[in-house]
Amino acid sequence: MSEIIRLSYAELAERLGISREAAKSRVRRAGWLRVVDNRGVARFNVPLDVFDTPDRHGADTVTREAPEVAETPQHDTDATLAAIEAIRSALERSEAARSEADKRCLDLAEQVGHLKAERDAARAEIEELRRVPPPETPPTPKPSPLAYPPRRRWWPFG
Questions:
Q1: Which residues of 100-131 are buried (b: 16+ CB within 10 A; e: fewer)?
Q2: Choosing a second label site near 98 at 20 to 30 A (CA), which of 3, 56, 80, 104?
Q3: Do residues 51 and 87 make contact, with C-beta atoms less than 8 angstroms apart?
Q4: Would the pTM of this model clear 0.70, i.e. be above it?
């Protein structure tokens, strides 16, 4: 376990080279133990590791070191040109396939238009047939009231 020292907000801000508000934020984020002394000054148990390691986010302190510049690798020009040519040929093939697909799409759109016209004509014909009245059937003669009604087979007494 690392060693701990007890510091106030002002002392922590001075040691880290940050503002007092930034020190309060850092204490709140870290969750360090807070103790209020008899004079009402809040002090925190701060691990000494905080002063040895640089800030992870770089928000509170500014580093003055120059970043390391990585060496740029030497590219193989022939391999790069071959890769570019392969990509160009793939692009040409995909453009040709796209133009074929566009032509097919236009043909299908034309077919859809013809089919919609046929459908509308068929619907109009159906509506016309529905408007024609059904053929008349001859009326059925009414039985005379004096005649016996037809025998009902389900009746047990007749």
A1: eeeeeeeeeeeeeeeeeeeeeeeeeeeeeeee
A2: 80
A3: no
A4: no
Cα 25 from Cα 70, distance rounded (Å): 35
**Cα angle, residue 114 at apex, residues 110 and 116 outer, rounded to 5°:** 115
| H-helix or E-strand spanning residue 124 | helix 77-131
Instruction: Print pLDDT tens along the chain (158 aa).
Output: 568 888 999 999 998 889 999 999 999 999 988 888 888 888 988 888 887 765 554 444 444 555 566 666 666 788 888 999 999 999 999 999 999 999 999 999 999 999 999 999 999 999 988 887 777 887 777 767 666 766 667 767 65
